[in-house]
Structures are given as C-alpha cells and as structure tokens.
Write a sequence for this structure.
C-alpha cells in the first residue's frame, strides 16, 4: 500500500501594523487572510498595539484570540500608548518556549521566539524573528539564530522577516548551510515585489513540500506572506 506523509502548514507575514496602502488600520483583514490559509503555525511581525482598535482592545490579544489556542508575544518596544513586536500563534500545543533578546547596540530592539510545538505529525521546533536593518547587525543575529535553534531530533523551521536582500556574506548565506530547505519569493514591496525579505527555512530539506505567497495581501501590508506545507512524522496509508 502506498503511504503519504502527514503534512502541516506554516506561515510568516510582516503585517506592517495592519496598515496597508491606505490610512485604514484594519486587523480584521489580517485575520481573514490568515484564516483563509488555515496555518497550523503563523509568525506575524510588526504587530502594533499602539494603534487603537475600532472596538477597543489590544492587537496582540485580538490576534491570539482569533488565530489560535496557543501563542507567544515578543513585545520589543513598550510605550505608554502600547506595544510593538512580533507573535507566534499555533493551533497546536506548545511544549517549551522562550523569547531571546537579539538586539544590536544602539539599534532597534529585536527578538527571536523559540517554540517546540506538537503538530499532528510530530514535534517541530520553530524559531521566528524579525532581524535588523544594518548588514553586520543581521549577520550576527543570524548566527545567534543558529545557536537558538540548536539540534533537536525532529524538524526545525526558522521563519520571519530577515530584512536581507544581499547574497555575499548575507543572512541567507549563514542560514542556508544549516537549513537547506528554503523559500525564494520576492515579498517586498508587496505592490511590486523586488526583495526576498520574508523567508521560511527548514531542516531537513525534504520537510519542505511546497511554498507559495499570496499576492492579494498587497492591499493589507507592504509585505507578502510566505506559506509552506511541510511533511511531518510517520506516513499514513494513501
């Protein structure tokens, strides 16, 4: 009998504070697009609770409530008006997690989230992040991600907005050796994508089954989301 692997779906998206190419601040559109693709795990960057929601509440809390039972928020900037940062949201249980400060001196605060998540096909380690804007800053942060990811027995996925568009000595060069499976799409600016800022990396390579982007997101954010189907655990009868 032929057997097919179990699959899961992951997604990363810089939502630009839910402020698209117009002045409207609309988290509902973000929620609708993520729900459309039904990811098991989604990483969101540039979550901003400093903007007031029409019906009140906190952007981090609303996204968590709408998109998954389990989540981790990394609030890298905190002000009297609210917080700014990133999130990892999962429909599946999170066994262990941590938030790491990977900031570079005198640059914007940056974080990396580590989470071991029990997907239907087995455990997967996730590292999600939003790297800095300076070349050396990003390279050091990329090496830090390797330390954070470690070498668990199961698959590992690193995803987020890497702010990286160069090749020699770049983040891609650092990460691609350790995580040979990766997406390659141009995601920024969303209205006419030129730069491959948002990526999904995985180890081992064969875990990454399919990757794609959603061009319709150009009306919601200045980044396109990257979505991946991944092969997990033991095979099932076809």
């Amino acid at each position: 009998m032929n057997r097919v692997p179990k699959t899961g779906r992951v997604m990363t998206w810089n939502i630009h504070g839910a402020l698209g190419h117009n002045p409207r601040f609309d988290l509902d559109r973000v929620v609708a697009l993520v729900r459309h693709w039904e990811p098991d795990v989604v990483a969101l960057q540039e979550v901003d609770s400093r903007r007031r929601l029409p019906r009140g509440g906190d952007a981090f809390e609303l996204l968590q409530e709408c998109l998954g039972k389990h989540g981790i928020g990394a609030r890298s900037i905190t002000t009297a008006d609210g917080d700014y940062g990133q999130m990892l949201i999962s429909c599946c249980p999170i066994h262990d997690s941590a938030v790491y400060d990977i900031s570079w001196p005198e640059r914007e605060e940056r974080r990396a989230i580590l989470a071991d998540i029990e997907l239907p096909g087995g455990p997967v380690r996730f590292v999600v992040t939003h790297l800095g804007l300076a070349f050396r800053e990003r390279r050091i942060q990329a090496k830090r991600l390797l330390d954070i990811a470690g070498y668990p027995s199961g698959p590992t996925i690193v995803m987020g907005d890497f702010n990286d568009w160069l090749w020699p000595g770049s983040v891609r060069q650092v990460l691609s050796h350790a995580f040979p499976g990766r997406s390659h799409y141009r995601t920024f600016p969303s209205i006419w994508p030129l730069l491959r800022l948002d990526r999904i990396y995985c180890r081992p390579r064969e875990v990454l089954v399919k990757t794609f982007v959603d061009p319709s997101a150009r009306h919601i954010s200045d980044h396109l989301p990257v979505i991946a189907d991944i092969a997990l655990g033991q095979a099932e009868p076809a």
